[in-house]
Amino acid sequence: MLDLNDVCVTFYPNTSNERIALDHLSFHIDDGDFISVLGTNGAGKSTLLNAISGTLECDAGEIILDGQDITYAPEYKRARVIGRLFQDPMKGTAPHMTIEENLGLAYSRGKRTTLSKAIKKGDRKFFLEQLASLGLGLEERITTNVGLLSGGQRQALTLLMATIVTPKLLLLDEHTAALDPKTAKQVMDITERMVKEHHITTLMITHNMKQALEYGNKTIILNEGKIVKVLEGEERRQTSVDDLLNMYDFV
Ligand SMILES: Nc1ncnc2c1ncn2[C@@H]1O[C@H](COP(=O)(O)OP(=O)(O)O)[C@@H](O)[C@H]1O
Ligand SMILES: [Mg+2]
Fold first, then answer.
1. Residue among 46, 47, 45 nearest 10 (CA)
2. Which residues touch 12 (CB under 8 Å, ≥6 apart)?
């Protein structure tokens, strides 16, 4: 599904500030994998997602998505098939547009049609159903400007926008870290449901070790731009948060 072959990213190369963010990183991700990504600050987690989404170009190596070499594909092209969420609920939605308009934009993504502000009747019905499925009452507020929503509501909406046209890949960069625990759990449960329902291959960065073990089918630990541990299957099931903390001590 996704292959990273020997991917390297270095910031400020050959200067005293040189930072190796991804160090010959290779990894294979299977179709439908939901992988949680752990690692200390500066381990290279966000850089990994930036390299995959095309926000930054790799210095070396290749990235193959679904059989296509996307190593040098521009970000806007990758965005048609890669959904992405960040920690900041303000990113990813247009605050001065309504819920419905935001969904309309997301829904037209990847389609070669001219943008039209008019939302078709059938589309509205579909949007209402999708919003209702979030269980946050947003279906009652489709003409509300997104800027007026709470952080959790915005993340849930961004998640819906990222998946309303099923992406090949979903990249989540600590997307619940800015939310209170109850809301974070709600957004995580919505995430899991969407990922399962549409069978979306997903990479999720988190600092929450419990969350990292609870959701998804694999966990990887990054350190200094390398994957130092892959947890899956029985080994992952037997791993506790304490075990993970001990692994951190090692790296
Ligand atoms: N835009 C950038 N310019 C310079 N250095 C960067 C940039 N982005 C990340 N880095 C450096 O690359 C390393 C990995 O960063 P990052 O991927 O953001 O780590 P993480 O998300 O795991 O906390 C760090 O040393 C960081 O300082
Ligand atoms: Mg980061």
1. 47
2. 18, 19
**Ligand 1 in reach of 44 Cβ (< 6 A):** yes
* Nearest ligand, measured from the Cα of 56: 1
21 C-beta closer than 6 A to ligand 1? yes
Q: Is 110 helix (H, G, I), strand (E, B) or coil?
A: coil
Q: State residue 30's pLDDT score.
A: 97
Question: Within a 10 A sphere around the Cβ of 93, how many other Cβ atoms?
Answer: 22
Q: What is the distance between the alpha carbons of residues 27 and 11, in angstroms, rounded to a whole number?
A: 21
Structural domain span for residue 95: 2-250
If one residue of 38, 47, 59, 205 were mutated to test the ligand 1 pocket, choosing by the most ligand atoms within 8 A of its CB, it would be 47
In tens, the pLDDT along 190-221 reads: 999 999 999 999 999 999 999 999 999 999 99
Model pLDDT for residues 11-27, shown as the tens digit of each residue: 999 999 999 999 999 99
CA of 19 to the centre of ligand 1 (A): 8
Domain CATH for 111: 3.40.50.300
41 lines ligand 1 (CB under 6 A): yes
The 10s digit of each residue's pLDDT in 102-154 is 999 999 876 655 555 556 778 899 999 999 999 999 999 999 999 999 999 99
* d(C-alpha 27, C-alpha 35), whole Å: 12
- Say how many domains are in the chain: 1
